[in-house]
TrEMBL record:
It comes from Sphaerotilus microaerophilus. Belongs to the ABC transporter superfamily. CDD domains: ABC_MJ0796_LolCDE_FtsE. This is Lipoprotein ABC transporter ATP-binding protein LolD. Keywords: ATP-binding, Cell membrane, Lipoprotein, Lyase, Membrane, Nucleotide-binding, Transport.
Amino acid sequence: MPALQGVDLRVERGELVALTGPSGSGKSTILNIAGLIDHADAGEVLLQGRRVHDADAHSATLLRRDAIGFIFQGFNLVPVMTVADNVDYPLFLAGVPLRERRERVADMLAAVGLAEHAAHRPDALSGGQRQRVAIARALVKRPSLVIADEPTASLDSHTADQVLDLMRALGHAEGAAFLIATHDARLTDRCDRIIGLLDGQIQAAVAPLRPALRSPA
């Protein structure tokens, strides 16, 4: 049976879209295809109006580096790098000048509440702190699309609220689209849309019952 069947999904600039559904419903497959990690056997993937589903390996790598941010449940931090260096790394790869990199890293670490941990290594942090580092790393390069897999799973309520506010702020300020696989009701209730999946098919696409996440002043 195909992993996905007839999925037609569009995420607008500045929009937070949650993917929900049981294990095996197709959430991870959609994230991997949208993030140019996997290739679909059929259909199209467009990023900012550009056809990208047939990009070769080199082109896909450049697109992921420059236009797509990733937030993984397992953090995927580089253990030998400091917190600041982990957040700086995508900017370094993109060729951002050193002075600008330092300013953007400092601003992002302050935004996620980790400024005092800039010189620490990931193994000195709690799970929730490591996830915040991973979120800062994804957001610091101001991507067009952020792919997130359970981004609030290891965060307490206060920290999760901070992270969600940060996502909304980036979405509005930079026009980034967020595609988020989650089981967290705190997140789904505050996203712009909720896409329900079952057996590789979209079962429902609804707006949350509660008001969407507020935009910081």
